[in-house]
Amino acid sequence: MEPRRPQTPGAGGVRPRGQARSRLRERTARAIASRRVFPYLATVTVLIAVGVGILVRLIAPKDFDTVGEGIWWAVVTLGTVGYGDVVPSTPWGRVVGGLVIILGVTFLAFLTATVTSMFVSNEQRRETERLDALREASEGEVLALLQRLEERLGAIEAKLERNGER
To answer: How many whole angstroms separate alpha carbon 69 and alpha carbon 51?
Structure first.
């Protein structure tokens, strides 16, 4: 009987759905923590715009003559600009439009919060470094002052012992 080999993740080396989501969450968390979130946001935005552009072309072909026009509409709608040059008229097209608007507003809020957080945390880091340097300098000054006081006290005690007053 042959010993059992460890199985690869999923069939054919493909990760099961739960592991793939977990890995995506880990990568996203690392990107946010390392402040390299902008490439991910840009990539996700492009993917959403292309996906929605294709979807809206399939859902409302009378309103969107080409996939490019659908992508243009998706980009404009995600950016919450909404020129109105192309608008879905079918019910499902409007549902997709509503979802894209909500996604765009959410994306802009997340982007604004991320940038603000980066500025605030950078300022907090600088302030912490400044306070640490000040604390270290203060500790050094206090130690030097205590050393001088100890030397002066030792000199006073030595004089008192020589004079027999102690």
So the answer is: 12
